[in-house]
Amino acid sequence: MDPQKNQGTGASIVARDITKIYGTGPDAFHALGPIDLDIKPGEFVSLIGPSGCGKSTTMLLVSGLEPISQGHVEIDGKPLTKPISEIGIVFQDHLLLDFRTAIQNVMLQQEIRKLDKADMRSRADALFEQLDLVGAEDKYPWQLSGGMRQRVSIARALVHDPSMLIMDEPFGALDAISRTQIRHDLEMLWLAKRKTVLFITHSIEEAVGLSDRVLVMSKSPGRIVEEISIDLPRPRPAHLGEYPEFAVYAKKIYTIFEKLGVYNF
Amino acid sequence: MKLRATVRKAWEPALWFLGLLLIWEAAVRIFAIPGFILPAPSVFMLRIVQSAPQLAYHGMITTKLIIYGFVAGAVPGVALGYLIARYSICKQLLYPIVVFIQGLPKITLAPLMLVWFGFADFPKILLTGLITFFPVMVDSVAGFQSIDPRKYYLSKSTGASWLQTFLKIELPSAAPQIFSGLRISIVVAVTVVIVVEWLNSKTGLGYLVLRSMDGKDTSMIFATLVVGSLIGVFLSGLVQAIERALVPQGRH
Q1: Contact B248 A140 (CB under 8 A)
Q2: pLDDT digit string (tens) for B53-111?
Q3: What superfamily does domain A1-86+164-174+189-265 belong to in CATH?
């Protein structure tokens, strides 16, 4: 199954020479860039790299959540000037509001965007079904496991049917078993909806396991050093080692990391 | 089992309290302590019953002032706490003034209030507001400052307006700290109103205490204090009930 064949409803992201410099004068810190991005509608793209390479900054710049120091971004051909709201975001720690139940956290999107309540509730219920959250609706975040919290957070990012999903190390705080399961659940959701996903990770397995394309980044300042297209059938299995190509892709990324000095064995 | 535990939880402190009153009663009788120094509980309890209409009348006036003063302090306390926590310009401009006023023994402003505003309710409410303001403001600053900055990314990504962000994210996030300030302030407000009533009143529990003192009517002082303390217990219970209704239990 070739993902390119299945044109989705996702947004396209084009970035040219985007750069982020925090602060000014001698204290200025060059965090990112310049980098270019060309992400097709409905594409699943991972950014992988060592800590401090500007992965999260990239995500904040292309979504308009942080101002760009230089360069420009176009979403669906339109220049980005303010935070886009046709978007869902998932952070490493769920960022659920602890005074709201799971379903109320998801319905925050409906309340703020003033969308139809019954319609959104049925969408939320469907997502809870798909994400194995049935029965957790009226629980508060502190009553849920880490994996379930992150699932609620994914439901919140998708319930309003955004054209773009950005995820900043969403499975970073989970144990290995939950991580494999939630990776699969995310892939199935993505296969059904084909939203554009920008996925930030430290994990080679996650990057190869989920993406159409992996962008490998170096640090200080953050740059994209390599682009690897992942041509593996979907849905991909729990044990990626089933594919001999997986080892080849993983090896490629390890080799780049070694060259960058990320690993020092 | 659970019912028994609940009953015990309610009755044990009540019995203990009753026991203390009995010891007090016995001590006054055994050592023949004069009533104008320390009246027996039975005496001032009877006094509460006898003077019930009078105590209720003045008690209501005091309660009204406490609530007005509390609101007059709490609302600006939350608002200013929000501004100081969120905008560094407000912090720079307001914080020095706030620290200065906080250091001031504010109850000593009472005579000044009297000179400026006379004997009406306004100076009493103003002074009570000024004093209840600080605990609420300090805890509000802490509450609004402790919001995870990435929650603002979340709110921006939903396209939330300023008001939506405030009502749906910031205010409920800071609520536990704000309520800890409110719980302190409501108790402080009771004291402040009674003290201010000493100074410039013809009504209220503070006035009643002062008048009883002039008449060497110690049992009436005690009766008034019991009513004052009941008002304090009731109002702080009310604040806690509102907190339980608004803030989900088990947070943090």
Answers
A1: yes
A2: 999 999 999 999 999 999 999 999 999 999 999 998 988 998 888 888 888 888 888 88
A3: P-loop containing nucleotide triphosphate hydrolases (3.40.50.300)
| CA A68 to mean position of chain CA atoms | 19
Nearest CA in chain A to B161: A112
**Between chains, do B158 and A113 touch, taking CB under 8 Å as contact?**
yes
Q: Under an 8 A CB cutoff, do A83 and B154 touch?
A: no
- The secondary structure element, H or E, covering residue A47 is strand A44-48
Cβ contact (<8 Å) for B168 and A112?
Answer: yes
Q: Which of A64, A95, A98 is opposite residue B150, by nearest beta carbon?
A: A95
> How, if at all, do strands A223-229 and A213-218 pair?
antiparallel
Q: Within an 8 Å CB–CB cutoff, is residue A91 touching chain B? A: yes
**Which pair of tokens denotes residue A243?**
């594919």
Q: How large is the ipTM?
A: 0.85
How many whole angstroms from its chain centre is CA A119? 26
What percent of chain B lies above the pLDDT cut of 70? 98
Q: Please provide the DSSP assignment of A15-32 as one string.
A: EEEEEEEES-GGG-EEEE
Instruction: Report yes or no: A61 and A32 within 8 Å, Cβ to Cβ.
Output: yes
Question: Which helix (H) or strand (E) covers residue A222, if one does?
Answer: none
- Domain extents for chain A? 1-86+164-174+189-265, 96-161
CA distances (Å), origin B213, targets A165, B62, B219: 73, 18, 10
Q: Is A114 on the interface with B (CB under 8 A)?
A: no
Q: B157 Cβ partners below 8 Å, 6+ apart?
A: A63, A65, A83, A84, A85, A87, A88, A89
List of chain B residues whose C-beta atoms are within 8 Å of the C-beta of residue A83: 156-157, 159
Q: Around Cβ B218, how many Cβ atoms within 10 Å?
A: 19
d(CA A126, CA A123): 5
Shortest CA distance to B22 belongs to which of B38, B41, B35, B46?
A: B41
Architecture (CATH level 2) of domain B60-246: Orthogonal Bundle (1.10)
Peptide bond preceding A34: is omega within 30 degrees of 0, i.e. cis?
A: yes
Nearest chain A residue to B160 by CA distance is A112
**Cβ–Cβ gap A89/B251 under 8 Å:** no
User: pLDDT at residue A6 above 50?
Assistant: no
Q: Do B168 and A88 touch (CB under 8 A)?
A: no
